[in-house]
Amino acid sequence: MTWNYVGRRVAMFFAVVLLAASANFLIPRFAPGDPTAAVLEQLMSRGQQVEGAGDIVQEYRERFGLDDPLHIQYFRYLWNTLRFDLGQSISFFPQTVSSAILDALPWTIGLLLVSTFIAFGVGSLVGALIAWPGAPRAVKALVPGLMMLSAIPYYLLALIILYALAFSSGIFPLGGAYSSYPRSFDFETVVDILYHACLPALSIVLAGVGFWALGMRGAMIGTLGEDYLTLAEAKGLKPRRIFFGYAVRNAMLPQVTSLAIALGTAASGSVLVEVAFNYPGIGFLLYNALRSSDYFLVQGIAFVLVLTVAIAVLILDLVYPFLDPRIERQ
Amino acid sequence: MANCKSIWRSSSTALAALSLGLVATSALPQEAEREDQLVFENISQRVTTPENYNPYLPSTLQHAGLQQVGQESLFYYNYESGELEPWLASGYEYNEAFDEVTITLRPEARWSDGEPFTADDVVFTMQMLKENAPALGGNSVDARTWIEEIEAVDEHTVRIQLTSANPRYILNTFGVRIYGTAMIVPEHIWSEQDPLTFSNYDLEAGYPVSTSPYQLTSSTTTETVWTRRDDWWASESGFKDLPEPVEVLFRTAGSEERRAAMANANELDTLWVLGRDNFEQVVEQNPDITAWFEEAPYAYLDPCPRYMAFNTTKAPFDDPRVRWAVSYAMNRDAIVDIAWENLTVPAQWMTPDYPPFQSYMEENADLFEQYDTLTYDTDRTAELMEEAGFEMDGDYWVDGDGNRVTLDLVIRQGEADQTRMAPVVSQLLQRAGFDATFQLTDIAAYTDALNSGRADAWLDVSCGGVSDPYATFELYHSRHAAPVGEVATGARTRWENEQFDEVVNQMAVTAADDPAMHDLFREGLEVWLEEMPAVPLVQAALLTGFNEHYWTNWPTESNNYVHPGHWWATALLLVTNVEKASAE
């Protein structure tokens, strides 16, 4: 791998982050609505009379610098972002954006990371087996089911699961991450957190398995015709070794690329799962931030997501030449 | 299948490990038994500000416990008794001109950190609000508007010199007229803080420090927990008994379906709004669920009738004849039947059907005959539209240039009753020849549509007077009007009428029980009805429920010690009155 290659990839990383950060800044501002007015409206909808709403809105616009010209706001935002100062949330004022994200992040990482890895692992294995000539017939029969699962959006699956396993049968809780906020980490609390995570995780896993399985199946079919597999068989290697060491290993490359991106976008992709299950993660936070036009919180969450994806892709770009010696290193 | 199970088991273990590794908690007291916990539903979808208990920041969520059990009010206006019940205060007195009021405080009241609650705290709080208006929200604007001067006469007496006569100042500011109250904060803590950024949240330091019987012990985005303080000043002094719930929790349900399921499972003791069908199903499955009335309509009458407002600066709705034409197009019985499942009644005007308003409405029956706000008559709509210069072209009204009369109705998403009313109202308008559409918008887009003038009309809640009509009239005073593009307040119709303003100005300085109020009411009502700046639709009945599985002595029609709004500051009166079911 040459320094030229590394330099180009790193430059691309910064360009992507800058572009995405600019889009984060502009898009929420083109949406209608004023964040402070939205907060006050929420109060009025509950019957609270708000004296001098116009004055209050103006005061908070000034305080957050929203009455400055757009280019001034933009450069201030870039400067603050460079220093990782994401500012204060408007709708959750005086909480900082960083602390709001840090509060939500553990739940999202706990739920989504594990669910995505499970979906990836199970899906890739099943997909590989479907394409493998020596696999049992029962596995091949899974194809229609997997195709259906991959076509159903996360949130729709979440609602179906919620209805069937929580609302109708009462087997699982209807939402939230715990029965009562954990006050100590004993066995009971662990079970309670797991119990609450089951359904949201199940909806993500089910929706994901189909996607990964079909992707893997396609990659495997491409790999099966390769000469090195014929050679491996001719050498008399064990089927298991050919399957894992030759076929799956090569077919996994595009899957790994997708996984890196999927991990980065997992939080934004499953916003509606968190909303459906009232799960206190980053997706739920983003949904609420968007609903109340909280520019700073939306910017902060989106920036963190962009950064995650960009870093994941950069790492992937730098690691790929080691994974696949055929890749051009120029 | 066995493989799937093992994968699921291992993934669950990994998930737990990750969750445990990542979720930090502070040392918290041991959880109480469920039978000692009173579980309120937090009517919002989440605790929006779990680390902010500053009652004066506009972003603060008041009804996740802060105003119900985390603070006490000087007074509580009880809708059922019609009395302003003293609590932290023992009484108040106006001077003859109603421009000065003296409040007496209970000498035995104490803050949760043991410091005495005194007149200095009240003076400090109100001055802090006045000096930091408008940044500290509606209460600060109210303080800036009304307080000329405030002083502590002695340790337990506060004198407030008002900027002008206001016989309703105590009710509006310190009496929970609707929903909230001005909460007094401890001077010895707040004087060292910047009130514009102070979060008032530090569990280890015992914040928020309050006089209430409950201390915040846990606060997350989905739940807050308040634990009883057995050294509450009111129980020690004999003013009140110690409330029975050891813990009060506020939990989110999020959706009506989840609410119903949680009610069936006895996971909630108070419930936010359920539709009639849902409520009846829940009661069938769990007989412990009750509401204000045992039989239909079940629900307590909300103080805020629902209505349709216009941007009265925008043609053709700047013409009172067109506004009346819309009123005649409204079949209110259909709205009650379809959108409200027959749980309420049509609204003749903008005040709630509460006893104090009965005489006002009866005395003006002749006016309502002349300006009939309840009649559904599309022929009358046609007459008025033709009179205003419009003609029918096919199914729709058009102006002289052949442009259709369109009506863009904006609806706040998340408000169940308004969401149900929107299609009915639009359909009625369509039938009467208006090219009406409705759009459900989130809260930010809704305010933008109103402020920018993009909305022709919208549905809203008319929260005004509860004991006399002044506050309802005041919503239409022209001081609330503003040019399109700026924030209009009050009823937000941008309607201006000098004669009406004059009546409101006189009402403002007339005591609620003064017979002159009736003459002023008639005078103002006549102007209002002639102009019809907004269209009254229905009285609002919010079908909220209580659960008697763990707790009894909830307020009902036959046990009406207070009105039942459990998201209001008056909910402290519920908490201090409920009794443990297992003790019976």
UniProtKB/TrEMBL annotation, chain A:
The keyword Transmembrane helix applies. The chain crosses the membrane at residues 107-132, 152-173, 193-214, 259-277, 297-320. Residues 105-320 form the ABC transmembrane type-1 domain. Keywords: Membrane, Transmembrane, Transmembrane helix, Transport. Pfam families: BPD_transp_1. It is a multi-pass membrane protein. InterPro entries: MetI-like, MetI-like_sf. It is found in: Cell membrane. One of its GO terms (cellular component) is plasma membrane. The keyword Protein biosynthesis does not apply. Its main location: membrane. SUPFAM superfamilies: MetI-like (SSF161098). GO terms for biological process: transmembrane transport. PANTHER family: OLIGOPEPTIDE TRANSPORT SYSTEM PERMEASE PROTEIN. Belongs to the binding-protein-dependent transport system permease family. This is ABC transporter permease.
